[in-house]
């Protein structure tokens, strides 16, 4: 069955969201100073993404401010609760934002951009970012389980380790460590860790972060989020972005002799397109249809992109 091309967030729940066209959303940033330079935006955007200063100002600047306001309100509620309970210790824990969406939809760029923008607001000066790639099983384990061709599907992740990490974050631990994933090696680096030391905000980016728990007695990753974002687009657009990115990677990451994907560096254009479409149709599109897209309605906010990667409208869940 083809991926959905409907414009709402799901047949049963559009009434749960405020639907805000881009021009109305952009007006929210009218009085906000632009904190990033063009050079910084170029450094943030991913390969094939068309992020520019206009998109930052119109879409992501107001979103970063909204997230900072949510974080501040949550912190105040924590303080008020502690006062009510006559607690003396600081009860605040990091405000956790999940960013979900398909491969090649631009969620990694958005996560990096929000990290930079949110850190410029005085309410949330310390913002860190974790990707769920670090919680993929190592390739050797995926091979043992027969899952190498399903890398990125929910079963390829150590979900328990990710939940444990986020539980440390939300319990107020002084620091928590996550595994490190190398895109060059296409594998976990066993002797490297990413350390998170109690930031104001932690952004967690990944394909399947909005998945429901495997059983009713389990904790879902999204249970530990304070806010979640789904980056949405028609599957046909994402397919084109995926192929374009694959072609561009031949002249960058794939050309590195240490890259796992160096075997693709010398493909002709036709061969590269055919290989990319094979990966898309055999792995990424089924994962989108079966696992990623069905979680869209669980998000606090949906960013709906058009064919040129620009956000056309925003859907914000009502409180």
Main attributes of the structure:
319 residues, Rossmann fold, alpha/beta
Description:
This protein is α/β, with parallel strands linked by helices and 319 residues long. It has a single domain (17-317), classed as P-loop containing nucleotide triphosphate hydrolases (Rossmann fold), CATH 3.40.50.300. Helix content is 36%, strand content 18%. The protein is built from eight helices and nine strands. It has helices at 22-27, 38-44, 53-84, 107-118, 139-145, 159-170, 235-249, 269-292; strands at 17-21, 95-101, 127-131, 176-182, 187-196, 201-205, 227-232, 301-305, 311-317. The chain has a seven-stranded mixed β-sheet with strand order 1-9-8-7-2-6-3. Helix 7 packs across helix 8 (269-292). The two termini are 34 Å apart. Mean pLDDT is 91; it is low at 1-7.
């Amino acid at each position: 069955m083809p991926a959905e091309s409907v414009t709402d967030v799901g047949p049963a729940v559009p009434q749960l969201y405020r639907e805000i066209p881009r021009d109305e959303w952009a007006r929210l940033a009218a009085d906000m100073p632009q904190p990033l330079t063009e050079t910084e935006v170029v450094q943030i955007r991913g390969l094939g993404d068309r992020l520019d200063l206009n998109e930052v100002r119109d879409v992501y600047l107001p979103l970063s401010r909204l997230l900072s306001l949510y974080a501040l309100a949550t912190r105040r509620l924590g303080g008020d609760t502690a006062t009510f309970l006559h607690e003396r210790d600081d009860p605040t824990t990091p405000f956790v934002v999940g960013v979900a969406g398909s491969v090649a939809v631009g969620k990694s760029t958005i996560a990096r951009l929000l990290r930079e923008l949110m850190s410029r607001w005085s309410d949330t000066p310390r913002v860190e970012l974790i990707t769920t790639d670090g919680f993929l099983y190592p390739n050797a384990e995926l091979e043992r389980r027969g899952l190498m061709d399903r890398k990125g599907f929910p079963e390829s992740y150590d979900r328990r380790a990710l939940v444990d990490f986020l539980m440390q974050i939300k319990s107020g631990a002084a620091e928590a460590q996550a595994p490190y994933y190398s895109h060059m090696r296409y594998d976990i680096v066993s002797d490297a860790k990413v350390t998170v030391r109690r930031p104001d905000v932690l952004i967690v980016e990944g394909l399947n972060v909005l998945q429901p728990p495997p059983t009713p007695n389990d904790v879902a990753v999204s249970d530990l989020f304070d806010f979640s974002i789904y980056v949405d687009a028609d599957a046909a657009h994402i397919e084109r972005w995926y192929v374009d990115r694959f072609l561009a990677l031949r002249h960058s990451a794939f050309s590195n002799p240490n890259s796992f994907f160096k075997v693709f560096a010398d493909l002709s254009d036709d061969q590269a397109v055919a290989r990319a479409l094979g990966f898309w149709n055999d792995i990424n599109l089924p994962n989108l249809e079966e696992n990623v897209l069905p979680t869209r309605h669980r998000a606090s906010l949906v960013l709906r992109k058009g064919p040129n990667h620009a956000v056309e409208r925003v859907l914000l869940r009502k409180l």
